[in-house]
Write a structure and sequence with these properties.
The chain is of the alpha/beta class. It has helices at about 1-5, 20-50, 55-60, 65-90, 105-115, 125-135, 155-160, 170-175, 180-190, 205-215, 220-230, 290-295, 310-315, 320-325, 350-360, 415-435, and strands at about 120-125, 140-145, 235, 245-255, 255-265, 275-280, 300-305, 330-335, 370, 400.
Length: about 450
């Protein structure tokens, strides 16, 4: 017990799932077989050779054989253990980055994430990135399904000039899922100055565009980018078709209320009018097969957080994606935004978010809603308000609540709080669903 308290990490080598014990056992059997072979040789030497007198003392023949065996056995085990330990430290030191835990902790956490639940996260923008940043600490079996309707900024330019699907949200997800997230995020989010001839473009977007040129298509570019940067999980589009997000805005004029059609994801929130509905053109794009397979194979499906009308719904408006979610046996949670978004959800409550979802894709997609219950004063000049509940949710949903605000940016989710709330729910639900074992 004292040894465990002194160095608990050393005992992690023997925990289930580390995939180490079997090889240690094989090594031990090999050493035993080698020792037996050496013993036969030594016996032959003793019986046939005339050894010098000093051999009597070196082999401890003045003591009993039992004690000699125990002593040499202990020395052998100690030497083997020390050699294996130092050999592993020397060979694997390159894989443990400065500031990381020791090797056994790195391997232990890797194995734990490898056995984690299969999570599908659906959305886009900073909300999806925040979610991925948190859940990658719990599982490596992550599939992020990203909208391809973005048409603004650098993504829009590359989409128009090169015919690429917009890489912006993919870039953010790659950075969030990478091992060295801080450096990768700085690199991928770096925007070239106006004097560089690459005005407005981020390095990450250009990286993906270059990878698309090398690999031949956008789908392959995202896959290879993930491999190059060692991301934990996969990032896939909801569709490979070049879709345009459109919206009907409710415009109030002296003559009455009219609906105004706006095309283009970046143009919708700039109008400032309430959104009546959003839709895709073409209206029925084919879903990406990898996204459907991930949804049907998932243990947990998370919708959001993110811009409701321009990040989450564009994925769900791909008909086969919505059907796959409805058919999946996974736990399904909608993560409601902690704050309203100007031009999209001004004045929205939790119930308003759910009503917009139901109006577009029905009420069968999710059974649980995770909402923030941590509120603080909002500055008077803020362009947002914190999203609250007006009352009880509709009977089709079960409420999950937790403190989810980011202390530095209270209009966003805290990645760790969000991931912890989701996995606490998942663990409790799976434990509840386990059948009772017979006595």
């Amino acid at each position: 017990m004292k040894l465990w308290r002194k160095n608990p990490s050393a005992f992690k080598w023997f925990l289930p799932g580390m995939r180490v014990k079997r090889w240690l056992l094989l090594l031990l059997l090999g050493i035993v077989a080698l020792g037996l072979g050496l013993a036969y040789v030594l016996k032959e030497v003793y019986q046939t050779w005339q050894l010098p007198p000093v051999a009597y003392y070196i082999t401890l023949q003045f003591g009993e054989r039992v004690w000699r065996a125990l002593l040499f056995g202990a020395l052998g085990v100690g030497a083997v253990a020390a050699a294996i330990w130092q050999l592993n430290r020397s060979m694997l030191a390159a894989f443990v980055q400065p500031g990381q835990e020791n090797l056994v902790d790195v391997i232990y956490e890797y194995r734990q994430r490898e056995r984690g639940p299969k999570v599908v996260a659906i959305g886009g923008g900073t909300g999806l990135s925040a979610l991925l940043r948190g859940i990658k600490e719990y599982t490596s079996n992550i599939t992020a399904i990203v909208t391809v309707a973005d048409d603004g900024g650098s993504s829009g330019k590359l989409r128009r000039e090169l015919g690429l699907l917009p890489p912006g949200d993919f870039r953010s997800c790659i950075a969030a899922l990478s091992n060295d997230e801080s450096l990768t995020t700085q690199l991928f989010q770096y925007r070239f100055p106006n004097t560089a001839g690459l005005e407005g473009h981020s390095f990450g977007n250009l990286f993906i565009a270059a990878m698309a040129g090398i690999t031949g298509n956008f789908e392959r570019a995202i896959l290879e980018s993930g491999r190059v940067l060692a991301v934990r999980g996969r990032i896939v589009p909801s569709t490979l078709q070049n879709v345009v997000l459109c919206a009907d805005l409710r415009v109030e004029r002296p003559a009455g209320v009219t609906l105004q059609r706006v095309a283009g994801e970046s143009s919708i929130p700039r109008q400032g009018w309430p959104i009546e509905r959003v839709y895709l053109e073409p209206e029925y794009p084919p879903a990406y097969p990898g996204a459907l397979h991930a949804i049907l194979d998932a243990d947990l499906i998370v919708l959001g957080p993110g811009s409701l009308f321009t990040s989450i719904l564009p994925n769900l408006l791909v008909p086969d994606v919505a059907r796959a979610i409805a058919a999946s046996r996974a736990l399904k949670v909608y993560v409601c935004n902690v704050a309203t978004q100007r031009g999209e959800t001004d004045g929205f409550s939790v119930e308003d978010h759910l009503q917009a979802l139901e109006m577009h894709v029905g009420s069968e997609l999710c059974t649980h809603v995770l909402a923030n219950d941590e509120f603080e004063a909002v500055p008077e000049d803020a362009t947002y308000t914190l999203v609250r509940r007006r009352g009880d949710l509709p009977p089709a949903y079960r409420l999950l609540s937790a403190g989810l605000l980011d202390a530095d940016n209270p209009w966003r989710h805290d990645s760790r709080k969000l991931a912890r709330a989701l996995f606490d729910f998942y663990t409790a639900q799976r434990r509840h669903d386990q059948p009772d074992r017979p006595d």
